[in-house]
Amino acid sequence: MSGRETGGDAGWETAADLVVVGSGVAGLTAALAARRAGVRVVVVTKDVPDEGSTRWAQGGIAVVLGDVTGDSVDAHLADTLAAGGGLVDASAARAILAAGPAAVTALRGQGAVFDAEPDGGAARLARTREGGHSALRVVHAGGDATGAEVERALLAATSRAALTVLAGHAATAVLTGPDGSVQGLEVRDDDGRPGRLAAPAVLLATGGVGALYETTTNPAVATADGWALGLHAGAALADVEFVQFHPTALHTGRAGPGRAPLVTEALRGEGAVLRDTTGAPVTAGVHPLGDLAPRDVVAAAITRRLAQLGAEHVWLDATGVPDVAARFPTVAASCAAIGVDLARDPVPVRPAAHYACGGVVTDTRGRTGVAGLWAAGEVARTGLHGANRLASNSLLEGLVTGRRAAEDVVAALAGPRALGRVDAAAPRPVPVADRAVLQAAMTRGAGIGRDAAGLAAASDAVEAASDLRVPTTRAEAEDAALTLAAHVLLAAAGSRTETRGCHVRTDHPVTDDRWQRTSSTVVLDGDGRLHVGTTDARRGGAA
Length: 543
Ligand code: SIN
Description:
This is L-aspartate oxidase. The protein has 14 helices and 26 strands. By secondary structure, the protein is an alpha/beta fold. It folds into three domains: 13-208 and 357-414, FAD/NAD(P)-binding domain (3-Layer(bba) Sandwich), CATH 3.50.50; 246-351, Succinate dehydrogenase/fumarate reductase flavoprotein, catalytic domain (Flavocytochrome C3, Chain A, domain 1); 429-536, Up-down Bundle (Methane Monooxygenase Hydroxylase, Chain G, domain 1). Strands 1-2-11-10-9 form a five-stranded mixed beta sheet. The longest helix has 22 residues, at 474-495. The structure holds succinic acid. The site of succinic acid has 11 residues, from loops. Succinic acid is lined by residues 57-59, 262, 264-266, 355, 391-392, 394.
């Protein structure tokens, strides 16, 4: 990055109109759209650009393109509302889902290639089904490598557009001026060297929080950075207790924390079935859609069955799916790596932390409540997901809100703006927990099936494993973000005394009408204290 060396602790400094933090589907879509509008954009990413969650997405993109008889945006909305357990903001959801076709068409225009129907020519895209969908509406690429194709196409467009990408730099703070508006971003490189990007607009597109748990389908970079950056900048979070556990992560039998390969739900869409270790079906009698029930229902059913049997996994039998290894090459390769032949053997699977349904509160243009701060993708809470995200709505949301956020930034930059000076405040020490202790505590106390005692014990364990530090390396910044995120999640989960969507309280097993349409919110005050409140889920969006 060329820029002005300021010397001393401040490191280098440079300027941009918009700084995008994150290089997944939402971040790159936003950066490309803003660049096309003539905005000076810098994308900051703490690892290599394709290391985020986007590339690991398998199933596809849920979208109504208008060529499937009987499907409609209304039907997609109805499925999204049903999956979301009463907390979806219907008007935000409608706006995002209705913008889906244009977003997918634009992505194809940028070079993304989706799988076509064998007899329909390239124009007619193949569709699959996933849990909670009433129609075949999930488009996919490379069989089960949709995210990889989306990321490939966006990175190719990024290099064609000569976008500036600052890799290997972790965002450590959103800089704000005396009036609270955004003035830029502070970063540190892999060796802890600081730098600053002065900018009137920052877009958080940092992805998820999977590293809060010992086992997750997320890559290692999913360390809740955006939640922490947003909170410290003054933004509100909502619906953070709704962490979605994917029902079928591959049970590798490997000890210790880390990424568990995803076994896409699309396999069940194509006919694979779940059985427990005695051979009994797992979801019979649980939901009319059986194995294709919404994800929270299937994950909770598997968790109950594992507890009843004292088993470590259930089986996913995909041996009846035609040409299964060719249709699902990514899953087939993950299975082969543990000696399982997807075409002949049942696959050992169990739930794993997968997706944050809540996050930084935004409207459908990515606006947070902080002037100059936008958020898009998994880090954001637009109201689309409510208490449980509908399968394959996430890439769609990233595409749509990434573009909309860019348009909103461009409009905001055209108006009057003042980039004030940010005087370097003395960095304040924050709690930083030992990551392994935190992950063990969150896995034990805040997984599928939580209760007040377990949540409190997790909070105590995280606190006991923390010390106060000024983070100066990427690992410390990540651990600080995870520590704050753990406390935020535990506080919100503790306050919601009911079971809804992904939030399963064993001590409050019933869905309580008093919580219907009520979102939890969390803000951080200037003294580092968290405040948990509630808001109407339909008015959760800022601005
Ligand atoms: C899957 O392919 O099962 C995951 C898709 C998603 O998380 O939406």
